[in-house]
Amino acid sequence: MKWLIILSTLLSSPLAEEQWPVGDIQFIGNYSIRENKLLDQMILKPKGIFQKIEFSFSQLVEDIAALQEFYRRQGFFNANVNLAKLDRDSSARTVDIVLIIDEGHQTKIDTVTFSGDAVIETLKLLGSTGMEPGEPLLLEGIDSLQGKIYGELHEKGYMFAQVECCYELDSSRTSASVDCDIETGPFVRAGVLNILGLDKVKEIVVERELQFSGGNLLTSDSIERSINRIYTTGLFEFAGIEPVDTFSQLPDSDSVTVPVLIQVRELERMFQVQIGGGYQSARGFYLDGEASYRNFFGLGHRLTGSGDISSSLQGTRLKYSYPWIFSLPLDADFTSFLERRDEDLFTGLFYGGEAALGGELGMYNSFRAWSRLERVNWIDDPSGAGQDLRLNTLILGLAVRRDTRLSPLLPGSAVYMHLEGQIAGPGLSWSNQFYKSVLDFRAYFGFFDRRWGISSAILAGYVDGYGESGDLVPPQELFFPGVSGGRSVRGYDEETIMPVNDQGDAVGGKLQLIINAFELRFPVYKWFSGAVFVDAGNIWASAENSAFSDLHWSVGAGVRIMWPFFLARFDYGIRLDSDADLDGRLEFAAGLPF
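Given the sequence above, the corresponding structure tokens read:
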């Protein structure tokens, strides 16, 4: 080819002796495929602000071959990619590349046929993979069609099915016929379980998480759910499950029973420490820490000590977690706590304990029920209410949650919803009496390979007293921004968005509404990303005095710095209240704002 002759000539030039970076890369004749898509197939890249790649003849040869293969996979079987020009820019000391492309015709699908065993609906698969007659022949589409057929068969229990999709071009390479040959084989059932990779963890920890047992039909769904359950124990960094084909030739029967290989890799360290902190408009500077050992008795029992330090809260907690209590798929945890809260209205020392029971309700849903007993020693009595408050509070609570996020730091396209209800002191004269409800809803939409994301959230809550307490609510149970699961409105301090007394002290409220109306996250460079957002919110003394027009709005921008398993963010919110004069506040913290 002509470009090979050019390259061989240039190999003897002075350019081959001195390494210069690539300057510009131009394409001529790429009418069907955009330039940035072609550049994605190449190792050599144009020079940029943060990018400088040294030119290499051998790499250029490989890149041209990669472009040729890319065009073929897009259905351009007659396409040719050639080197048109190679310029050495002495002033810039760079190498400019010009590639000329003759795309030819794109091959279209003429017919799609299926042979062998027909146990799945093939028509809908054609539409979902772009493999309908008349559509361009994309080799990725053939791979996708074959993969989806495998997926359908594995979901039905044909774990040893064989699928082969191939294509045949006509003499002019303008159309092609596609055929998929399907051999389902027998249903596959679970036999003996072979668990490999365990050292400090007992086999029962893995076995109890499996969503199938001996004799059960194996499906891709039961295997996937089992792997997810093994990961949720928090004891393993890898888990895989695979039925073992022990037959030289599959028998002609409806089903076979085979061994199941379960491979796991335990965490190197079962003792872990996590530390986080930052600055928020409502909380000021804060520091959070947690240390845990997660494998007592080889059964995944966990002991966790944690603490919080901020201007308004200093606390410590010790929690013991007991998975699969009474050999049931339920997790129990027992917590003791001691904390001091310093608010404008009160200062108190709170201590007590909590017992909770939780479990899964399907793949993404869970529940938690708990009982919490708390006692308070008032250091500074709440003004005008101390004589009417009990020192003890018994709370019964129930929460349900749906969480489809990939992870809290990289949610992807997902929904998170937490609905919680509490009642304190039912029928007990020695306890404060109130009820509380909280709704936390978040929606995430990721696009461009999840490098970009749009998200919104609503946090709403209501609390009020009843019975002998009347409408009195203990001040520690009122809503404060950024405290006990609350979120702040970026740009505002707490006194601006909640009730205050005559001295201007924040006193908490019975009704809260925090709206993260919009947040757009986008990549900037490597581990840096940016964000723009719109927030709103308010906390009211009572529901009767609330109005949507009372919401305080803010807009702002921020920077995210992402490391493995850690995200730091810096947000600057600008207040939009009529009397704010576009003042703002800086906030930095660990993790996403919601």
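Confidence is low (pLDDT under 50) at residues 1-17. Try to locate this feature in the token string yourself.
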